Amino acid sequence: MEEQALTYLRPDVVSKLANMELRARMVVEGFITGLHKSPYHGFSVEFAEHRQYMPGDEIRRIDWKVYGKTDRYYIKQYEEETNLKSYIVMDVSASMSFASGGKGEHVTKSAYASYIAASLAYLMQQQRDAVGLLMYDDAIRSIIPPHATKAHLRRILLELERLAPSNRTKTGFALHRLAERMPRRGLVIVLSDLLDDPAQVLAALKHFRHNNHEVLVMQILDPLERSFAFGADAVFRDVETGERMPTQPYQLQHAYRLEMQKFLERYKRECRENNIDFVLLDTSMPFDTALVNYLNKRKRLG
């Protein structure tokens, strides 16, 4: 069964499934089969009566007995507060349509992100957590508010099935606008290649944290976007602007990789400094890797 599940979790296999709901169910059920349940409780608050203290919480609600045992701050929480509202925020700009290889070995970044989003939405609904879907490119394109019903899940999966990347990226602008429209504290999961001005993107992510949201960023890149391992002379075309540029990639590869490394390290460092979970993925990774990274981080937060 374990071997079969790993087969299902390969992107090239999952991408051939026609139905988004079937894809999501197969990824999630294949992934969790035979594993202990407790790590997957992380989408909801870890404790039925306690939650980790966050800036803005009332100090009088801190449970000092728990602090004495764990050296960590938890607040007393009541039953009606335990339902989590989650927001999956998808970048659907044209840059997410990129895929290298030419032989189907890698899915597009948008397809990869949609499979992750579908799987997370399916898993949250199974745990009766409310989940919503928000899509953006250079503006906010669609908002499905969080709910926890099966009918609502199907609506999200249908929206993901119809996803068609287009337009330019304005991640910072769009995330700021979304932060303004999310009044209740919850979990925000951002799926994007983050190929935009890091200062603007990070400022927007901090906006979510300022509003006391818990934030997870999954940066999704194609392997060639990280390695720049093109062998011959090539003409590059910007998928968002159509601009073309002839170049010799092998002469630029070393400098490109250094710049890309600095670019990625900035996101990692500043996310860490602002208590934002950051997971770097590329489209050659199995989906179970993405879910393991997320769930392990959630478990450690508990």
Brief write-up:
With 302 residues, the chain is of the alpha/beta class. The protein has helices at residues 2-8, 11-14, 20-32, 64-70, 109-126, 150-161, 171-180, 198-210, 223-227, 249-273, 287-301; strands at 50-52, 74-76, 85-91, 130-136, 140-147, 187-192, 214-221, 234-237, 244-247, 277-282.
What would you note in describing this structure?
With 302 residues, the chain is of the alpha/beta class. It folds into 2 domains: 2-41 and 83-301, Rossmann fold (3-Layer(aba) Sandwich), CATH 3.40.50; 45-82, no CATH class. The chain is built from 11 helices and 10 strands. It has helices spanning 2-8, 11-14, 20-32, 64-70, 109-126, 150-161, 171-180, 198-210, 223-227, 249-273, 287-301, and strands at residues 50-52, 74-76, 85-91, 130-136, 140-147, 187-192, 214-221, 234-237, 244-247, 277-282. A 6-stranded mixed beta sheet has the order 5-4-3-6-7-10, with helices on both faces. Strands 1-2 form a two-stranded antiparallel ribbon. Helix 5 links the parallel strand 3 (85-91) and strand 4. Helix 3 crosses helix 5 (109-126). The longest helix is centred in the C-terminal third of the chain and has 25 residues, at 249-273. The protein is globular, with a radius of gyration of 20 Å.
